Amino acid sequence: MSVQSPTGELALTRLPGGTLVVRLAGAWRLDHGLPPLHELRRELREATPARIAFEGEGLTHWDSAVVAFLAGASSIARESGIPIDRSGLPEGLRRLLDLAEAVPEKDDAKDGSNIDDFVHRLGEKAIETHRLFRSDLQFLGHLALTVGRAFRGRARFRGSDLAYLIQQNGFEALPIVTLVTFLLGLILAFVGAIQLQTFGATIFVADLVGVAMVRDMGALITGIIMAGRSGAAFAAQLGSMKVTQEIDALETMSISSMDFLVLPRIAALFLMMPLLTLYGDAMGILGGAFVGVSMLDLSLVEYLFQTADAVSMSHVVGGVFKGAVYGALIAIAGCLRGVQCGRSSSAVGEAATAAVVTGIVAIIVACGVFAFAFYVLGI
Predict the structure, then answer these.
(1) Which has the closest alpha carbon to 335: 61, 48, 104, 139?
(2) How, if at all, do strands 8-14 and 19-28 pair?
């Protein structure tokens, strides 16, 4: 039997004495793909030979592809208890095979050879979850003590760091907040106009956009933006400091990393998020006004007066309060994942990703809690 494969030619011949001769010819190159072993298995299933002899006189060019094939064929023969003869192979190829087989195979080298059972994996996952939960509680406990020291005026951090973080997470975040919230106002106006035009009540697009932005969407979208922008940055900064042992150096000098690194970041985002929320509300209302003026034949003054009538002070205060809470949650999530970061470069990226996910999930959960609480309170 002769098989022409992309890697070369394989011929299987049975001799009268019960010997199966495996002849290799042509160019066997790894970049053409690994050679097949199914023909050899099929031949062995039909009838078990007395021995297997390999011949490689016809090989022209070869690399590790032929070594992989011969090692696999030898393994199949040994599993079936069939003796093998490699005297017909080139000397260099025989030495490579001897060298490859001289290294003992790892226990988990084959797929499925050391797969943990379900109960074992479940136990490991439970232990890891418990460890992370304890780490989260320890961080929150240290943070509570740090906030207490801050209120007593005993927290140690530099005012210049706080000012820089306020600038970085306030003024420098305005462009992205402007773009996203303005487009969100456009989208809300379009969605509302499609339905309200049916009833000839396009003026109420101003009510829809104004109340939605000020009450919920402004704080929510701004929080999601800052989770991706500042939360990831906090985790990457603290994670890099942990990798380079800067945090260890601070602790060695009796400087609390919670005071010096974590507290200014939480304070900066807690202070800036209400202002960014108000700014995002204004941009969203302007986005809705753009649709109302350019497509719904509403005047700008009429649109703004309708928005002012629909939006109450309780809506504004509630949205600002949500923004402040979202800011604290984002900063805590970013600093938490940064402090929990491992000591490798890849761990920094994983910490940044975890910070974004944790921050967004915390914001969504808090939004649901606020929605229920405001409904119960009638706000």
Answers:
(1) 139
(2) antiparallel
166 within 8 A of 285, measured Cβ to Cβ: no
Residue of 191, 339, 352 whose CA lies nearest to 263:
339
Could you tell me which residues come within 8 angstroms of residue 35 by beta carbon, excluding any fewer than 6 positions away?
5, 7, 8, 10, 28, 65, 66, 68, 69
The three-state DSSP-derived secondary structure of 11-69 is EEEECCCCEEEEEEEEEECHHHCCCCCHHHHHHHHHCCCCEEEEEEEEEEEECHHHHHH
Q: What are phi and psi of 61, to 5 degrees?
A: -125, 135
Yes or no: say if 260 and 156 are a contact pair by the CB < 8 Å rule: yes
pTM of the entire predicted model: 0.67
- Closest by Cα among 17, 23, 80 to 46: 80
Q: pLDDT tens-digit profile of 258-312?
A: 888 899 999 999 999 999 999 999 999 999 999 888 888 888 888 889 888 888 8
Instruction: Classify the phi-psi angles of 103: left when phi > 0, otherwise alpha if psi is within -120 to 50, otherwise beta.
Output: beta
Q: Where are the domains of the chain?
A: 2-102, 156-377
Any bridge partners for residue 19, and if so which?
Answer: 51
User: Cα separation of 155 and 254, whole Å?
Assistant: 13
Give residue-wise pLDDT tens across range 328-357.
Answer: 999 999 999 998 888 877 888 889 999 999
Q: Is 2-102 assigned to CATH 3.30.750.24? A: yes
Query: What is the DSSP-derived secondary structure letter of residue 312?
Result: -
